[in-house]
Write a structure and sequence with these properties.
By secondary structure, the chain is an alpha/beta fold. It has helices spanning about 35-50, 70-80, 95-110, and strands at about 10-15, 55-60, 85-90.
């Protein structure tokens, strides 16, 4: 992809749980399981490297494991929005009550809501 043509496409990527868990038995993996902040940020950084892009137009959060609180999830996702790494947030494979809880938190704290 040419750098000056990036604005001509909509780039979407997704994050799912367990980034690189069990990929190497020698690595400490306590922070890589589930859908926590560390796993999210490492996964998104790897996606940007693979896509050769500095940002994504839309980041889907895929697979809600319910071990990570709505507050932590929305804080982590919004950190990416504030850093201009992600423009819009989406979610898939999550119960409606969870999406509502996430968006309620975002609204109450002046953060970007899940829009897709």
């Amino acid at each position: 992809m040419y750098i000056d043509s990036r604005h001509e496409i909509v780039l979407v990527t997704k994050y799912s749980s367990g980034y690189k868990v069990n990929s190497s038995p020698a690595k400490i993996q306590s922070n890589l399981g589930g859908t926590g902040s560390n796993s999210l940020h490492l996964s998104v950084q790897a996606s940007f490297r693979n896509l050769r892009s500095a940002y994504a137009d839309l980041l889907y959060f895929h697979y809600c494991d319910l071990a990570t609180t709505a507050e932590e999830l929305m804080q982590s996702l919004n950190a990416l929005v504030r850093a201009r790494k992600v423009l819009y947030l989406g979610i898939s494979d999550a119960p409606a009550w969870w999406v509502t809880k996430c968006n309620d938190y975002a609204r109450q704290h002046g953060r970007r809501e899940l829009s897709v």
